[in-house]
Specification:
The chain has 607 residues and is of the alpha+beta class. It contains 20 helices and 11 strands. Strand 7 and strand 8 form a beta hairpin. Helix 1 crosses helix 2, helix 6 runs antiparallel to helix 7 and helix 8 crosses helix 10.
C-alpha cells in the first residue's frame, strides 16, 4: 500500500513538472533560496518575489494556451517576454514588496480565470466548477503539507530521543520550508483541472451547512451593524473613522467570496438563495462608508500604498455591484477578471500604487518644509527646532514613510549640499531620527498626527553593570505601576527599611490622574511627592535626543526630595505613554522607578 501511494505521488509530481516546467523550476529555486536565508526583508526578497510571480504567471499562461490549443512555442512566445518585463520591474524597484503584493495577488487571481478568456469557455458555471476543484485541491494540499511536516518532525524527534542521534537545530525550519515551498506547490499543480468545459460539480453537504448556518448569517448580522453605523453618522452628522475602510473592505470581500462559493446554489431556496439575490443590494451603504472614510484619510494624509489598495478595492467592489445589477452573462468571470486586472495594473507605471503614493507624500512634505523654510530652492536649510509637536509629527510622518519605503531619491537631492548628511550613508537601513536631525527637526511619533508616544528605558540602569549609590543607605527597585489606561489599578507598594533603631515602614503610591508619585513614612506621616508632569516636560523637550545614545550619551531622569527624616532620589527607570497634542495632555501607561533612600539623623543602618 505504501509503495502504491509513493508511486502515485511520484507519478503526479512528474505529470505536474511536465505540464508546468517553468513554475516547477520557480518553486525549486524559491525553495533553495529560502533554505539558504529566508528573510523577506533582505535582498533575497527581490528574487523570491520574482520567482513567486513567475510561478503563477506561467501557470496562467499554460492554462490559457491549453484552452486555445496553442503549441508550446507559441505559449512561451507570450509568457517569456512578459515575465522578463516583470522581472526587470521587480529587480529595479527600490522596495520590491509593495509592487509585489499587487502583482502577486493579480497573478494568483489570473490563474483562476486564464482558461476561460475565450468565447468558447466564457461561462460562469465553467469558471465556478474549475475554481471549486482548484480550491479543493489547495485545501487538500495544505492539509497534506501539515500532516507531512508533523510526521517528519515526529520521526526525527523519535530518532533523537531513542537513539541519541545528533539533530541540527535548524532542521525543523528547513523541513517546513521544503514542504511549504516545493512539495506543496507541486502537489497543488498536479491537481489543477485539465478540462475547462465542466458545468456541474457535486456541492458537499458540510459546505452547504457552513454557508447556511455560519458564514451567511454572520455576514447578514455584520451588514446590519454597518447600516446602523451609517444611520448613526447621518443623525449626528459626523464623518466615519479612518479604520472603517478596512472593516467595510473585510465585510465586502468576505461577502463576495461567499457569493462566489454559493454560485452553483443560487437558484436554491432558504438563506443561500436569499443571500445570493440580495447581497449586492446590501452593498451601496457600506461602499458609501468606505468611499467617505478613505477620501477623508487621503485628503488629510495623502496616498500611501495601503490607502491606494483601499481605493482599488472600492473600485473593484463598484465594478462587481454594477456587473450584477446590469445582469451581465458571466458575473463570476467579471468579478475575478476585474480584480486580477486592477491588481496587476496597480503594480507598475505612473498610475501604480508606488508612483502615486510617492508623488502624494513628496508633494505634502515639500509644502510642509517650504512652509517652515526648511526646504529652500530645493535644498535643505537646517532650521532651529521651534516647530510645535503637531508640526513635527506631520513632517516626521512624511520622512518616516519615504525612508520606510526606500523612496530616498528626493531626500538625497535635497541634501546634495550636505555630503555628511545621514541620508547619503550607503546602508540598507536608515535611522529616521538622524535624517530628521540633519533637517534641524526633532523626530516625533509618526503613526498618529494627534499623538506622540514616548517609550523611555534608562540607559544607565539597564545597561550599566555598576551604578554608584554613594550618599544613600538603600537602593529600592520599585515594581512598575500601571495606569488605568491599562485597566490596572496603581496599587500602593509597602516596604520596610531595617535600622538599629527599629523598622521604618514606607508606602510608595502613584496617582495616575494627577501624575503624582508619593513616598509616605507610616509612623511619622511624612510625605515626599514627585510631580511626573515636570519630568514629562523634560521628556517632551528632549524628544528624540533621549534615544540617540550614540550622540548624546546615556540620559538619567531623576528628581530629589526630602523630609525631616528622609532624603530620596527618585529615578525613572522606564516610562511609557503618549502625548495628546489636541488635549495638551500626557497619558502614562506604565512607570518603573528606582529609589535611593537615606535616613537622616545619623542612624546606623544594617546591611
Amino acid at each position: 500500500m505504501l509503495n502504491h501511494a509513493l508511486r502515485n505521488i511520484l507519478g503526479e509530481t512528474r505529470a505536474a513538472i511536465r505540464r508546468f516546467p517553468i513554475p516547477a523550476l520557480c518553486c525549486l529555486l524559491f525553495c533553495a533560496i529560502s533554505l539558504e536565508t529566508f528573510n523577506f526583508h533582505s535582498e533575497n526578497a527581490r528574487y523570491l518575489s520574482i520567482l513567486f510571480c513567475g510561478c503563477f504567471w506561467f501557470i496562467a499562461v499554460t492554462l490559457f494556451a491549453e484552452s486555445r490549443r496553442w503549441s508550446v512555442l507559441k505559449q512561451y512566445a507570450l509568457g517569456i517576454p512578459v515575465f522578463a518585463g516583470m522581472t526587470a520591474g521587480l529587480y529595479t524597484t527600490p522596495e520590491p514588496m509593495f509592487p509585489f503584493w499587487f502583482l502577486g495577488g493579480g497573478l494568483f487571481c489570473l490563474m483562476f480565470i486564464a482558461p476561460f478568456l475565450t468565447r468558447e469557455h466564457w461561462q460562469g458555471e465553467r469558471i465556478w466548477v474549475f475554481s471549486y476543484h482548484l480550491w479543493a485541491r489547495i485545501f487538500f494540499t495544505l492539509l497534506a503539507a501539515l500532516v507531512l511536516f508533523l510526521g517528519a518532525i515526529a520521526i526525527i524527534s523519535s530518532l533523537k530521543y531513542l537513539f541519541g542521534l545528533p539533530v541540527p537545530h535548524d532542521i525543523y525550519g528547513d523541513i517546513w520550508l521544503t514542504v511549504a515551498t516545493l512539495f506543496s506547490p507541486l502537489l497543488a499543480m498536479s491537481g489543477i483541472p485539465r478540462r475547462f468545459d465542466e458545468t456541474e460539480a457535486a456541492f458537499p453537504k458540510p459546505d452547504r451547512l457552513i454557508l447556511s448556518y455560519i458564514a451567511i448569517p454572520l455576514l447578514l448580522v455584520y451588514a446590519l451593524i454597518l447600516h446602523c453605523y451609517a444611520a448613526k453618522i447621518a443623525l449626528i452628522r459626523d464623518l466615519p473613522e479612518g479604520e472603517i475602510g478596512w472593516l467595510v473592505t473585510a465585510y465586502a470581500c468576505a461577502g463576495i467570496a461567499v457569493w462566489l462559493a454559493s454560485y452553483s446554489l443560487r437558484r436554491s431556496g432558504g438563506v443561500i438563495g436569499f443571500f445570493h439575490r440580495r447581497f449586492f443590494l446590501l452593498l451601496p451603504v457600506p461602499l458609501a462608508l468606505l468611499a467617505v472614510g478613505i477620501s477623508v484619510r487621503i485628503h488629510a494624509y495623502g496616498f500611501t500604498e495601503e490607502r491606494y489598495a483601499l481605493v482599488v478595492c472600492l473600485l473593484w467592489l463598484l465594478i462587481c455591484a454594477a456587473a450584477h445589477m446590469a445582469r451581465i452573462r458571466n458575473v463570476p468571470g467579471m468579478i475575478i477578471l476585474s480584480l486580477s486586472i486592477l491588481l496587476m495594473a496597480s503594480s507598475f507605471g505612473p498610475w501604480g500604487a508606488v508612483a502615486v503614493s510617492e508623488r502624494s507624500q513628496v508633494a505634502r512634505l515639500i509644502v510642509l518644509l517650504e512652509k517652515h523654510h526648511i526646504l529652500t530652492d530645493g535644498k535643505i536649510a537646517p532650521a532651529k527646532d521651534t516647530l510645535s509637536g503637531q508640526e513635527r509629527s506631520e513632517i516626521s510622518a512624511q520622512v518616516h514613510y519615504l525612508v520606510r519605503t526606500k523612496k530616498l531619491e528626493h531626500l538625497r537631492q535635497w541634501f546634495a549640499a550636505m555630503p555628511d548628511a545621514h541620508i547619503h550613508v550607503d546602508t540598507r537601513y536608515f535611522d529616521v531620527n538622524r535624517v530628521m536631525k540633519d533637517m534641524g527637526v526633532r523626530y516625533s511619533y509618526p503613526y498618529r498626527r494627534d499623538v506622540r508616544a514616548f517609550d523611555f528605558n534608562s540607559e544607565i540602569l539597564w545597561r550599566k553593570p555598576v551604578v554608584p549609590v554613594s550618599g544613600y543607605d538603600f537602593m529600592v527597585n520599585v515594581p512598575p505601576f500601571y495606569s488605568q489606561t491599562m485597566k490596572t489599578n496603581a496599587m500602593p507598594q509597602h516596604m520596610t527599611l531595617e535600622s538599629d533603631g527599629g523598622e521604618i515602614k514606607l508606602i510608595v503610591s502613584y496617582d495616575p490622574d494627577e501624575m503624582i508619585y508619593r513616598v509616605t513614612r507610616e509612623d511619622t506621616g511624612e510625605v515626599i511627592a514627585f510631580m511626573l508632569r515636570d519630568i514629562l516636560k523634560e521628556v517632551e523637550h528632549k524628544g528624540a535626543d533621549m534615544y540617540d545614545y550614540s550622540r548624546n550619551g546615556p540620559i538619567l531622569l531623576f528628581r530629589e526630595g526630602e523630609s525631616e527624616t528622609l532624603k530620596i532620589r527618585f529615578i525613572v527607570s522606564s516610562l511609557n505613554g503618549t502625548f495628546a497634542h489636541a488635549e495638551q495632555k500626557a497619558h502614562i501607561s506604565s512607570l518603573g522607578t528606582v529609589l535611593l533612600i537615606k535616613v537622616k539623623g545619623g542612624e546606623k543602618m544594617t546591611h
